[in-house]
């Protein structure tokens, strides 16, 4: 099971945390950030009743349709 939103195809991305210690630029290790995916049932369209993984932004968008 992939960690990808089935509606908008949002996936993980890399980020770097910066530590500003006494004014010095101190990049630390890279960290992989994942989207907030949750199971939701589609209520319209040809896939009505199907459970899919969707990010919270898409769930909010679906509630307004």
UniProtKB/TrEMBL annotation:
Keywords: Ribonucleoprotein, Ribosomal protein. The keyword Ribosomal protein applies. The keyword Secreted does not apply. One of its GO terms (molecular function) is structural constituent of ribosome. GO terms for cellular component: ribonucleoprotein complex; ribosome. It comes from the Bacteria. Coiled coil: none annotated. SUPFAM superfamilies: L28p-like (SSF143800). This is 50S ribosomal protein L28. It comes from Candidatus Staskawiczbacteria bacterium RIFOXYC1_FULL_38_18.
């Amino acid at each position: 099971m992939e960690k990808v939103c089935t509606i908008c195809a949002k996936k993980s991305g890399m980020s770097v945390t910066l530590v500003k210690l006494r004014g010095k630029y101190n990049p630390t290790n890279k960290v992989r950030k994942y989207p907030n995916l949750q199971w939701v049932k589609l209520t319209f369209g040809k896939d009505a009743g199907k459970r899919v993984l969707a990010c919270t932004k898409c769930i909010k968008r679906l509630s307004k349709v």
